[in-house]
Specification:
- It is a single chain.
- By secondary structure, this protein is mainly alpha-helical.
- Helices cover about 85% and strands about 0% of the residues.
């Protein structure tokens, strides 16, 4: 269950990271409210997952999910470059997340 909670925390991290773009420096009310809510939920779920997962593993996986998801949405939503180097690097992050999961049992 902790891994599911951690995965959800990572998805909410993606939501708030992308949401930051839409807040326009927290000058738009509803995108700012949604972004802050996603932040709070992401941190709450991360803390809940850390009750039973090691700190380093949980944090690294949370950041990795956030990095991969945010980069993919940047490509899809904001036409950021999808170069081979970027995609390979995202694959390496994914491999690290999988490795941490497998190593933790």
């Amino acid at each position: 269950m902790s891994w599911t909670i951690l995965f959800l925390a990572g998805l909410f991290e993606v939501a708030w990271a992308v949401g930051l773009k839409y807040t326009e420096g927290f000058t738009r009310l509803w995108p700012s409210v949604a972004t802050l809510a996603a932040m709070a939920l992401s941190f709450y779920l991360l803390a809940a997952a850390m009750r039973s997962l090691p700190l380093g593993t949980a944090y690294a996986v949370w950041v990795g999910i956030g990095a991969i998801g945010t980069a993919i949405l940047g490509i899809v939503l904001f036409n950021e470059p999808a170069s081979a180097g970027r995609l390979v690097s995202l694959g390496l992050i994914l491999a690290g997340i999988i490795g941490l999961k497998l190593a933790s049992g």
